[in-house]
Amino acid sequence: MSLFGRMLLGTLLICIPVHASSGWDWRTRVSVAVKDQPLETICIILEKQYGIHFSYSKNVVDLSPLVTVNVQNKPLKKALEDIFKPFDIQFARIGDQIVLTFKKQPTQTISGYVQDNATGEKLIGATVYSPIQRVGTTTNQFGFFSLTLPRDTVSLQVSYIGYKPGKLPVRKSQSEPVIVPLQSQNSLPEVVVVTDTLRQHDQVPLSKLSLSPAEMKSMPRLLGEADMMRAIGALPGVSGGIDGGGGLNVRGGSPDQNLVLLDGTPIFSVSHLFGIFSVFNPDIVKSAEFYKGAFPARYGGRLSSIIDISLKDGDMQQFHGEAAIGLIAAKAMVEGPIKKGKTSFVVSGRRSHTDMLLNDLVQTKDTEGPESKGYVYFYDANLKVNHIFSEKDRLYLSAYIGQDKLNLTWKERPLDTINPSAYLGNSHSKFLWGNYTGTLRWNHVFSPKLFGNLTTNYSQYYFSTEYNYNYKPINTADTSRLYGKYYSSIQDVVVKADFEYRPQPNHTIKFGMGAITHIFNPGVSLFEDEGGEQPSLDTTYDNGASVGQEILLYAEDEWSATQALRINAGIHASGFLVDGRFYHSIQPRLGLRYQLPHRWTVKASYTHMTQYLHLLSNSNASLPTDLWVPSTRKVQPMFSRQGSIGIVKSSRHRMYTMSAEVYYKTMDHVIEYSEYVSPFDGAGKNWDDEVAVGKGRSYGGEIMLEKKKGTTRGWIGYTLSWSDRKFPSVNGGKSFPYKYDRRHDIEIVFTQRLSKRWELSANWEYTTGLPLTLPTASYEGTGDASPYDPPQRDPILDHIGNRNQYRTSSMHRLDLSATYSKKKKLWTKSWTFSLYNAYNQPNPFSYYIVTDTKKQERYLAQISILPILPSVTYAIKF
């Protein structure tokens, strides 16, 4: 704040006017003589003799020091300089008064942590506010805050959603970090803290959502869990993929363009069980921040979104936990102190039991065709240890492991046989995919204004498939026994240092550096053939690992230029070394927020992002078979430029919020498989010969109306968007709708608290169909038919038209849940009843062409894999 502003804010009028005349100026000559009198006496004399009125605050300007002054016939300005300069007092004329203030007010910096009073859990995004100065700040990702204020500050207000507000008394010369404990409220809907003076909603950047534990628990609970990723997927501009395919598509981007961080460690696959569950157990998640634009400079490496998730630290005082069991999965979480007040831990685990209760979850049986059956399940586990060395040093260790497994068995019946028990062959396939992560973090408070964090982490995503196939033709002695394996993976090793410096309450500077080693293993295959009289074939395709080295530097500055204008400006610089080629990128970022009267806010942003990793995929679903590959000499890094502008309006009591936003994004060096190339064909060492490189574009508008307070909460969101791609060697060089292009998307999220024990929730979503490529014509070819084709029928050849010229049918789904909870003396129990896909809508997962030999016609058939899924979950919290 400017010196002039400080004088206005820090001044109370205590004038004693004597003369009605105000005919003075700085050249007016004055005389005053005092001996061993307070400075205040000089002001009184000048007021009586010359009609010069003084204004000042006794809490800011001290006029009690005794002085001896003899000023004779001097210009007023020169006289006041001689009198006040030794005491570092500044003066300025405002109207008919002279306002006094200190040239430089004595200040002190208060820093520390805001935490849960009972558990010691650090609270992210808590507000620390000074009502007198009308300035404040929020805690960072580790619950740390720093606030520089005048030395005469008496106390600060501290608040956090779901907690009772608290006060922090300010002691003089306070140098060590302080701990501010807040008491949790038992029920979020009964107490919602809103700090109007700080205007918290105006501080939130454009295109950002922050979720606290209390807010996550108020989300709809499907299959017994209030899943964070499902809440993000219900926001405007975001779609949760297709039913049965995990991953998020943000503003026309692909799932690989989302950077998902778990305690600072990247996660490459974010869903379990075909997207029904996310890999993040909600019982252990502390907070989440989601960006779909206006990316701060500290983030990089992806084009479409950032999801930054922090895990709980563990209770420092006592042991407690949660456990739940439902029809689909069971889970448990325990946390507590290893050494009270010093070291804590939290551990959680989940496992689905669909393989045990529903062994034939995937099953088809036809007396005239093949028979297949199978099952799928997942498990995951989290561990985190938190140790406090001192008030300035803390250490965090966390780890995650998760895996999905799919087993399929298939038997093929012979054609035109009178023996229904005879089979031509059978096969068994096993698919495994999952993530491993490990994180070590050290926090250090260098000074009350400077906070540092050093992180090292490891992350791996892998996919493995193994199959056995036995085939015996009818009426021959020949047999064929095939065995194959396929494996791919990506690994990241990261070292990063982040710093946060807060010189003033309205000014925060963040900067840091890092290095990442990417290890890619896009495909290793083993194939064996031991059948018949032919010699056995044992072939291994070892594509070898490739390594990419990435370095990064960033700096961002967030400050309030005025009370209405807030700016976040930064730059992210990075480089990538692979196969002797070095790519580099300078990425500017800018975010603006301007506060208008009557609770209107205008926000705008521009971001430049670069991504050195690519994902090879030819499906609309985010499947485990998708391959991660690096930029190469032939395939350059992707980069995007996105601009957005939006407006936010809040009601008088902040109960309702309306936001609207438009965006335009361009993408360069995006890739797509070339025509007629499959993922396994393109998995070789020279995969970059099998892809096309081109440009992408997405643009649209988003509207959201949200009700934040009361027993009824929720939001309605609508998105109108376009997304297209253009490749020189695909679709004749013409642009075409991208596979994630969705014209209209509607999301309705509703939560109703009926009483202290019952809560109902619903989530309805609608989206127009996805682009689809289909034959425009077909004709009979000539040549040898397959032994599986009907006799005396030539093969059918298709003519493929323009890429993605058709669309699938529209998709919509209703999810419902009801939760009953009751608090006992030692624990709280709850029952959750939910329906996934409540009216059993058969949304498309994939399409295939079927030939009807009797009717001599072909038609398009749809596969839907997630019907109505009822679930009952019983949970206890102790």
From TrEMBL:
GO terms for molecular function: siderophore uptake transmembrane transporter activity. GO terms for cellular component: cell outer membrane. InterPro entries: Beta-barrel_TonB_sf (IPR036942), CarboxyPept-like_regulatory (IPR008969), Plug_dom (IPR012910), Plug_dom_sf (IPR037066), TonB-dep_rcpt-like (IPR039426). It is a multi-pass membrane protein. GO terms for biological process: siderophore transmembrane transport. The keyword Translocase does not apply. Keywords: Cell outer membrane, Membrane, Receptor, Signal, Transmembrane, Transmembrane beta strand, Transport. It is found in: Cell outer membrane. It holds the Pfam family CarbopepD_reg_2. Residues 224-302 form the TonB-dependent receptor plug domain. This is TonB-dependent receptor-like protein. It comes from Chitinophaga ginsengisoli.
